[in-house]
Amino acid sequence: MKKEIRLMKGNEAMAEAAILAGVDAYFGYPITPQSEIIEYLMSANTAERTGMQVLQAESEIAAINMVYGAAGCGKRALTSSSSPGISLKMEGISYMAGAELPCVIVNVVRAGPGLATIQPSQSDYFQAVKGGGHGDYKLIVLAPSTVQESVDFIRLAFDLAFKYRNPVMILSDGIIGQMMEKVELFDQQPRLSEAPEWATTGKKPGEKSTVITSLHLESEDMEQVNLRLQAKYREVEKHEVRFESYRCEDAEVLFVAFGSSARIARKAMDLARAKGIRAGLLRPITLFPFPVEEVRRLAGQVSGMLTVEMNAGQMVEDVRLAVNGRTPVEHFGRFGGMIPGPDEILVALEARLEEWYKEQPAQTE
Amino acid sequence: MAEQSIISPENLVYKKTDVMTDRELHYCPGCGHGTAHRMLAEAIDELGIQSETIGVAPVGCSVLAYYYLNVDMQEAAHGRAPAVATGIKRVFPEKYVFTYQGDGDLAAIGTAETIHACNRGENILIVFINNGIYGMTGGQMAPTTLPGMKSSTCPMGRDVLTMGNPLKITELVAQLPGTYYVTRQSVHTPGNARKAKRAMKKALEYQKENKGACLVEVVSNCPSGWKMNPVDSNKWMEENMFPFYQLGDIKVPGKGLVSDGKNGS
Predict the structure, then answer these.
(1) Helix or strand or coil: residue A349?
(2) φ/ψ (deg, to 5) at A6
């Protein structure tokens, strides 16, 4: 059966995807550029469609803690916000990582630091990938570059969150959240009918009570918890790396870009190819786990890598770690809500080519 | 008569409720938390709702309440218990949900969560232990510390001109349309403890009827934080805390506000 194709705004498409994915509850607080998510859910009659609970909280802090409560009951709970609001959620996210509660957090990133601007940015990469909240924890981070992926990742994110009992962040941005694109929605999924055994659902007679907590006062215990978390993150790294490659087979130089930057970098790659520069593009889809092996493999092939990010250079650090000095890695970015054009990306690439080729002559066929 | 022959079910006059675990309490000698826990546990037991109850523990002395209360529980971040309870209640509207919070948790860092959960009329029970001090962190000033009362962060006594006034958050939330039953109790005598239990029981019964938020404040002592022995601390509480935090109902079903909160201020 042919699926219906709809033209939808990124934020609204994610909201619809949440209903279709059988999400049990959404708690959020308005902030530009993602308020359409809660607006859409509030007008979608979710109670009748699936029984999904939707509540506007008094703050981002309250919203993430409502997610904690619902997730602790074994339910699929979702929240969304944009950068300043995500900062407020960081306490709750750390607690959820510590208590090993699954949930999905959407960050439709706007520029920072501070109140900054409502325009799109990718300057929350560090916050999403490296922690943000306190303690040694990791989020699984998915970076959509299209409205279609925004939809598909809602479902994927909940699958991963429950598979690993870990919060998952969808790191979108103001471009993808606000633009309209063709999208194919998936069929309605049922809401969870049974609670996992770790959830608080009321103590069963004759059984021990269930406790959701991140508190382990004895250091020996807390170290064991940390070791267990780290082992889980290594499993995630082993099984959940996702990326997409464009024309990497014969590439002599490589763009590395995620999310909306990857769309622009792809255009820049086409322009480079038209000028005879064999450029390729690697688009990490999971930012944690980062596609370390693929970057490392390509480091042996290309003369240099240029990350394209709407920030001052954040993902470039992970690329450098993966490359470990084998090939030059540089960063091109616009920030503060400025969106780079393909032309200026191409100029940035060309400016580096001479030096790269000097260091590592391009392999000729 | 041999002692053993007396120990039989028909002679049983008191039995520890199964809603309390056998774990030894970590609370200081003379602290009111243990009794407050027991009253809540007995209220849950007497209503027969142990298997349908989910509690939320705070950050503070009662952070480990889930060691002692034998019900499913979630540990919340500091002050966030009413938001966590909201999340639980919204996905499990048929369960009984309570929070157990101290004054720093509920009336300082968690003021927004407290007021908004109450104002939304969340069908939850909030048990609020007010001992006018931060016990867990070593006796610092609380939002409820009395004027002139000493703590480690107001060693000369609370100066209301620079440190602000004690917050009567219970009277405050009683003003909100979302609250149904708001009362202030204590557990320092058997009679008071029984009254506190009755209040908690009533609040849980109202929850079944979806009447809105219920808050039971328990004015309690902190012998360690107040630097007194348990007996003196209870006497000090009666002489100093009760005139300011007057015991009794503040908002009752059918009557609305029955106390204006101005007594003792």
Answers:
(1) helix
(2) -120, 155
CB B86 to CB A55 under 8 A?
yes
Asked if the structure places residue A202 within a domain, the reply is no
Question: CA A100, A102, A104, A105: dihedral to nearest 10 degrees?
Answer: -20
Q: Which domain holds residue B231?
A: 21-257
Give yes or no: residues A39 and A145 share one domain: yes
Is residue B197 within 8 A of residue B139, CB to CB? The reply is: no
Residue A190 corresponds to which tokens in the numbers above?
Answer: 């049922």
Backbone phi and psi for residue B216, each to the nearest 5 degrees, phi listed first: -115, 110
Q: Tokens 């086409």, residue?
A: A270
Please indicate whether, in this complex, the C-beta atoms of A202 and B84 are within 8 angstroms of each other.
no
The strand pairing partners of A77, in sequence order, are: A25
pLDDT tens for chain A, residues 1 to 365:
667 899 999 999 999 999 999 999 999 999 999 999 999 999 999 999 999 999 999 999 999 999 999 999 999 999 999 999 999 999 999 999 999 999 999 999 999 999 999 999 999 999 999 989 999 999 999 999 999 999 999 999 999 999 999 999 999 999 999 999 999 999 999 998 899 999 999 999 999 999 999 999 999 999 999 999 999 999 999 999 999 999 999 999 999 999 999 999 999 999 999 999 999 999 999 999 999 999 999 999 999 999 999 999 999 999 999 999 999 999 999 999 999 999 999 999 999 999 999 876 655 44
Q: Which of A70, A213, A214 sits opposite B88 (nearest CB)?
A: A70
Q: Do A205 and B51 touch (CB under 8 A)?
A: yes
- Taking the CA of residue A95 and the nearest CA in chain B, the distance in Å comes to 7
- List chain A residues with CB under 8 Å of B77: 65, 68, 91-92, 95
Nearest CB to A72: which of B71, B88, B113?
B88
Spatial separation of the C-alpha atoms in residues A274 and A116, rounded to whole Å? 38
- Residue of chain A whose Cα is closest to the Cα of B73: A211
- Domain containing residue A290: CATH number: 3.40.50.920
Full-model pTM: 0.96
| SS3 at position B176 | coil
- Nearest 5°: the CA angle B128, B132, B136 is 80
Residue A215 lies in a domain: no
Per-residue DSSP letter, A120: B
Residue entry with tokens 């080519």:
A353
Q: Is A165 left (phi over 0), alpha (psi -120 to 50) or beta?
A: left
Q: The domain containing residue A326 runs over which residues? A: 243-359
Residues of B in contact with A201 (CB under 8 A): 54, 72, 92, 95
Chain A residues near residue B66 by CB distance under 8 angstroms: 209, 211, 213
Question: Where is the domain boundary, A201, A217, A239?
Answer: A239
Closest CA of chain B from A100, distance in Å: 12
Nearest CA in chain A to B85: A69
Residues in chain B: 265
Chain A residues touching B50 at Cβ < 8 A: 203, 205
Amino acid sitting at position A120: P
Of A63, A77, A209, the CB nearest to B72: A209
Q: How many domains does chain A have?
A: 2
Task: Assess A26–B contact: CB distance below 8 Å, yes or no.
Answer: no
Q: How far apart are CA B155 and CA B157, in angstroms?
A: 5
Rounded to a whole number of angstroms, the distance from the CA of B68 to the nearest CA of chain A is: 10
CA distance B201 to chain A (A): 18
Same domain, residue pair A279 and A231? no
CB A165 within 8 A of CB A106: no
